[in-house]
Prior knowledge:
The complex is a heterodimer of chains A (320) and B (248). Chain A has helices at 16-31, 70-84, 95-108, 214-223, 231-235, 266-272, 289-292, 301-319, and strands at residues 3-6, 9-10, 13-14, 36-41, 56-60, 88-91, 110-116, 122-123, 126-132, 137-143, 147-152, 167-170, 181-187, 199-203, 226-229, 256-260, 277-282, 295-298. Chain A is of the alpha/beta class. In chain A, strand 17 (277-282), helix 7 (289-292) and strand 18 (295-298) form a beta-alpha-beta unit. Chain B has a single domain (2-216), classed as HUPs (Rossmann fold). The longest helix of chain B is centred in the N-terminal third of the chain and has 17 residues, at 37-53. The radius of gyration of chain B is 21 Å and the shape is globular. At the A-B interface, helix 3, strand 7, strand 9, strand 10 and strand 13 of A face helix 3, helix 4, strand 9, strand 10 and strand 11 of B. Strand 13 of chain A pairs antiparallel with strand 11 (160-167) of chain B, so a sheet runs across the interface.
Amino acid sequence: xxxxxxxxxEQGKFKKIAFEVASYARAxxxxxxxxxxxVCINAENPAELESYGVDKILNISNEGLKTFNALSYSxxxxxxxxxxxxxxxxxxxxxxxxxxAPLLAIKLKAGYISNVSELPSNYNPLTVKRSAxxxxxxxxxxxxxxxxxxxxxxxxxxxxxxxxxxxxxxxxVNVAENYTKVKSVDKATDKVTIADAETVVSAGRGLKGxxxxxxxxxxxEVLGAATACSKPVSDLGWRPHGEHVGQTGKPVATNxxxxxxxxxxxxxxAGINSSKVKVVINTDPDAPFFKAADxxxxxxxxxxxxxxxxxxKTFKAQNS
Amino acid sequence: xxxIVCISHVPDTTSxxxxxxxxxxxxxxxxQFVINPNDEFxxxxxxxFKEKQGATVxxxxxxxxxxxxxxxxxxxxxxxxxxxxxxNPEDGYNVATQLASYIKKENYDLVIAGxxxxxxxxxxxxxxIAGLNDANFINNCISLEIEGTNATAVREIDGGRETIESCLxxxxxxxxxxxxxxxxRIPNMRGIMMARKKELEVIAPIDSSNxxxxxxxxxxxxxxxxxxxxxxxxxxxxxxxxxxAKVI
Lengths: 320, 248
């Protein structure tokens, strides 16, 4: 058995999830007395992975892979897996990784398990827990195939810094011409994204109108958080769809989720279920969100939020 | 343009999720089944291509006869024909194998499936169809235009969006944004009556096997009581988040 982990980078820098998946792969290897090979694409400093316990690094530098392309990236990871004769392949749950995963699974003839939340409970046959029903349940899944592709859910495995002396090898891949061409990318570079955020500040219809989002953005800025919203808010066009959290929107698995003026419909709660700590601020003490939250404030958002911003600023000034 | 929309038959989003047979099967008791929302956004976009560009729109599902009510709803919304591959799907790979085989045989130009079903959340069927049939593939698609054989799509990425050019035949993993929630159609009486006369073809599955088995389900551990903090004492909230929860 050999383990391969795809460690993602963006503009040459490893994403935090790259270290999560590397740590996860290391733990699987330890349980099976085997080694971990990481594969990275156009990373500036592959040696950074040596802090997360990998034994070998396949370093792909290729102009043709400058922008993400699901077909050529899945081909690259596939060739790395072939090269290493890997039987367990670990990737993250980023939008890009979940895009390439089914293509990679077909190439590898691997059983694909997405949204994995724990280490496997058994290796013969491999059995592992994943979330399903939008976090309303966990499913224990067993794989029949020799190769397994695991996509690890965000924030479900703690990064473990283990120093290793990895060998770094340049690895070349056969990238065919791209069948899809990226024309333009529209991404706010100065804002924290929901995918990367440790904290998410989310607001709902209780805010009464899009003009009142200034305080939500300010609270997010103080906390270094991303902003999100409920489904009605995105349907009304107050906020972009990319911020919609819930069953038909985005799942949020952060350390801290703050919900302001969101009543807590079952579809919304499902989407945030795997966040670790939830805070609700709402005028209605009977709002369903209070049953799902860890901490709650019954009060008017227009009073509570500005005061919370001031107090947090003082707190940050004292604790930095 | 020949379009096929893959329809998953899923519990309504408000359903209580319970399990039966020693937590090995989803409990269907009292559960209302609907078109998977991610598929319905795609179906509604397909209706636009039908009405504005003269496309034909078929819908397909892998399932037993209980899923036919969902296929009839898709016909009532305006699809031309429905196909049901008669088997109880065991995993996403098996579903994708069945769909890919039919799609290849019938030469569809555009295949639309939801980016994931809201029940098992596998997120693999559209990508696997593309992988099995060597078709172009765009996931998390929030906008789609077709001109001749050229496709222009917008894909949601982490923290933004990406505009992509590709060409037919193509497989789309769709989601909200392909159309807006307010564009979704509720079948009217005429649509329902017409749907009864439309063809719903039942075909036998091809030989295929699953790659994974679902062994057991469990529900998350119930949450403890919420700790309420007075709006006049927000210092206490900050204290709890800092010292107890250790998240700030």
